[in-house]
Write a structure and sequence with these properties.
Elements lengths: L6 E5 L7 H16 L10 E5 L1 H11 L4 H12 L12 H21 L14 H10 L2 H9 L5 E8 L5 E7 L7 E2 L2 E5 L4 H7 L9 E5 L2 E7 L9 H5 L4 E5 L20 H33 L2 H5 L7 E5 L5 H7 L6 H8 L13 H7 L3 H16 L2 H8 L3
Parallel strand pairs: 1-2, 1-9, 2-3, 4-6, 9-10
Antiparallel strand pairs: 3-4, 3-8, 5-6, 7-8
């Protein structure tokens, strides 16, 4: 009988902020080597949402060699350019962002011309090209066949049904689960699922996916995600490493504020932070309350419930990523900076406005490298907790 816990990995959304996750994984790999821990994939269950879904799938595809998988992720994130994720040239921005902003201001005039209706602020066709080089359904199935991976899940939000859908694949027969406003669908995970999960609302176009005999358009999985930890639990994880993208461990104290009326970029950044960051904190608190309650139950009462304690380790940025992004606004391609200036992103450093919105779109190496380094530093600072969590001595 195997009494070893099944370790799950939960990677949340956050656009370019997901570089932080790679830094955490890089540090975990280093701590494992220092501890002379057994080889193999430390995360039999891997789940992700939005940009976290992309990291999850890329890691799962190569999880037979965990160090190599992390190395590949680091190479991508530490050398990023926005053009690898979305069209950042003048023509590409004009075809999407400029038209989109024009529709916001003059849509009532040109609404009759359907060809003038862009689907999103940015064209993320380059993302699909990148994903096809990094991820494939065949690699995921082979990882499961070889015993390196037990299950993987990515989530997306259906614009038509309003349902939050978890697409999953697993070695064992796991029945799909249904909860209020969220369902699970067994499926081979491919590039379209990742594109849908990472389709930031308004910013990137929705993606059509087959579901239950029909086709529906899906957007970012962080939307309406009430329980981001849930898929890992349903897929059999009994302890979970959760990597956040902000707010949970950020320094306390007053934040920069302005008495001026918020511009569109500030409102959009606030809305995206609500979508990407808030649900995880709530779900972690819920899980901690359940664990605390279960500890109070006598053995006979515990035997009558299907609930079991789930050990968790949460690693999240110790610095405000909005502030880090503010230092790197100049790294964005000139056409993108011009477009974002039109919605209110301006300045740099302490004088920046709209940095929260930019923090999700800053797929540029100066910013992503700093996030990777922060992920490494935050995790190494908690080296003893990491060792205790995995049982590495």
């Amino acid at each position: 009988m195997n009494d070893q816990p099944t370790t799950g990995l939960v990677l949340t959304g956050g656009g370019a902020r997901a570089a932080y996750q790679v830094g955490v994984l890089k540090a975990v790999a280093q701590i494992r080597r220092e501890s002379n821990a057994p080889p193999g994939n430390p995360f039999p269950v891997i789940t992700g949402t939005s940009a976290g879904a992309i990291n999850a799938a890329a890691l799962a595809c190569r999880c037979g060699n965990f160090d190599d998988a992390v190395r590949v992720l680091c190479e991508v994130w530490e050398n990023f350019h926005a053009e690898q994720i979305y069209r950042s040239d003048s023509l590409g921005v004009i075809r999407t962002g400029a038209r989109w902003l024009t529709m916001l201001s003059m849509g009532w005039v040109i609404a009759r011309w359907r060809r003038a209706r862009p689907k999103s602020l940015l064209d993320n066709a380059p993302t699909a090209d990148l994903l096809r080089r990094m991820v494939s359904s065949e690699q995921l199935r082979e990882a499961m066949k070889q015993g390196h991976l037990q299950a993987i899940a990515v989530t997306a939000s259906g614009y038509g049904s309003g349902l939050h859908v978890t697409f999953y694949d697993a070695v064992k027969e796991i029945l799909p689960w249904t909860r209020s406003q969220r369902i699970a669908v067994r499926s081979e995970i491919g590039v379209p699922h990742l594109m849908a999960s990472a389709a930031i609302p308004f910013v990137f176009p929705a993606v059509a996916l087959p579901i239950e005999g029909r086709t529906e358009y899906f957007g970012d999985g962080s939307m309406r995600q009430a329980a981001p930890i849930s898929p890992a639990v349903h897929l059999g994880a009994t302890r979970i490493l959760i990597i956040g993208a902000g707010r949970m461990h950020e320094p306390p104290g007053p934040r920069a504020h302005s008495s001026e009326y918020p511009n569109l970029a500030q409102i959009a950044g606030h809305a995206l932070s609500n979508i990407f960051l808030d649900a995880l904190a709530v779900d972690v608190e819920r899980l901690q309350r359940i664990n605390a309650t279960l500890k109070l139950l006598p053995p006979e009462a515990l035997a009558r419930t299907t609930l079991r304690p789930i050990e968790t380790l949460v690693i999240a940025p110790s610095q405000r990523l909005d502030d880090l992004a503010a230092k790197h606004l100049g790294s964005l391609p000139a056409p993108v900076r011009t477009m974002l200036r039109g919605v209110g992103v301006s300045g740099r450093g302490e004088d920046a406005r709209g940095a929260a919105l930019a923090s999700y779109l800053l797929f540029e190496a100066p910013y992503t490298r700093e996030l990777v380094a922060l992920g490494v530093a935050d995790t190494m600072a908690r080296r003893d907790e990491v060792r205790a969590f995995f049982g590495w001595t």
